[in-house]
Amino acid sequence: MAPEAELMPRLRDVLYSGQISEGPPVAKFESEFAEFVDAPQPDHVLSFYSGTAALHTALILAGVVSGDEVVTTAMTAEPTNLAILHAGGIPVWADVDAKSGNIAPAAVAARITPRTRAILAVDYGGIPAQLDALSEVAAAAGVPLIEDAAHALGARYGGRTLGTHADFVVFSLQAIKHMTTVDGGMLVCRDRDAAARGRLTRWFGIDRHTSRTEVDVATIGYKYHMNNVTATIGLVQLPHMGAVIGRHIANGRYFDDALHGIPGLETCSWERQAEPSYWFYTVLVERRGDFVRHLADRGIATSLAHKRNDLHTVFAASRTPLPVLDAFYSRMIHLPCGWWVDDEDREYIASTIREGW
Fold first, then answer.
1. N or C: lower Cβ tally within 10 Å for the chain?
2. First to last CA, the chain
3. In the CATH scheme, what is the code of domain 241-354?
4. What is the pLDDT of residue 15?
5. Which pLDDT score, from 0 to 100, does residue 322 have?
6. Which residues of the chain have pLDDT under 50?
């Protein structure tokens, strides 16, 4: 959270303002968030009560309906692919890149069929996916590219902040992300008309600028909007995000150097044009159980963060061989590299790993 002295007066103001649902603070937050991610137009950015709601809306705007296929990755948190089911779509797994765990463009291309309606890429752990190559695959297939950037606020690709590289880009503001509004999500739409449809979709299909007794609901919508309270938290948070994300990046780059060349451990790698924001730090290790115990015995937490989605019963119908993911998932483990990890902490983590396990 932002400093109490900054946040609490602003929250008191909005809580007793007479309007706590969607109003001017939401619009202001969308505008300032658009500036933060270098979106060309503020009205292309939509706020939601969760990242999952934003992703579901992106899939709707992409045209996904019952029976359509969405080529996606199993190497992600469950909401990424549950949103496909929410839209009535069918997840089609593509294998991952062996060095980063992100979806592999060649594997995506091999999974395209006449039923493909969209491609969904995840910037896992804050490492940007291969967005140029994925955009080429999407263009060749004539389908939109949706980027789940829930882990990657503040990351850059090709010298530009993530937020404008795909047809739809989704960010999460859930409790444990780089930035939190307690819960929330943002959707950046490349197309103005799509953004306008998204505003209807997130509020029951109702145009909020038209009289409620005169409006005509022509399409199904949802109660997905953000409220003034969470938007105010976001407004107070945003000026601090450069420093917060900067600390994630500084810690990640420290580990890039400090953990390089350790026997039995491999750091992830990515395209030259990708600049991660290191939501967590992923390494690939031999004897993972021993590695985890070695660090736990010295007070260092590690995590797998997510279960690969293709192993869940709800996605059983989509199962297919994913040999590269099998190898990646069997060795991966995540280290903490967030804003709370100070210089002494990160040095301790690196020296502990260098001891061996």
1. N
2. 36
3. 3.90.1150.10
4. 97
5. 98
6. none
Amino acid at 253: R
Full strand arrangement of the beta sheet holding 69-72: 45-48, 185-189, 168-172, 145-148, 116-122, 69-72, 90-93
pLDDT of residue 215: 87
pLDDT in tens, 188-229: 999 999 999 999 999 998 888 888 888 888 889 999 999 999
Please classify residue 261 by burial: count the beta carbons closer than 10 Å to its beta carbon, then call 0-12 exposed, 13-18 middle and 19+ buried. Answer: exposed
| Sheet containing strand 332-335, strands side by side | 265-267, 281-285, 332-335
Helices (H), 131-227: 131-141, 192-201
Place of tokens 């969470």: 230
4-240 under CATH 3.40.640.10, yes or no: yes
- Can you tell me which residue has the tokens 């000026």? 239
- Work out the number of other CB atoms within 10 angstroms of the CB of residue 297: 10
Domain boundaries, the chain: 4-240, 241-354
The pLDDT value given to residue 209: 80
Name 49's Cβ contacts closer than 8 Å, sequence gap at least 6: 183, 184, 185, 224, 225, 226, 227, 230
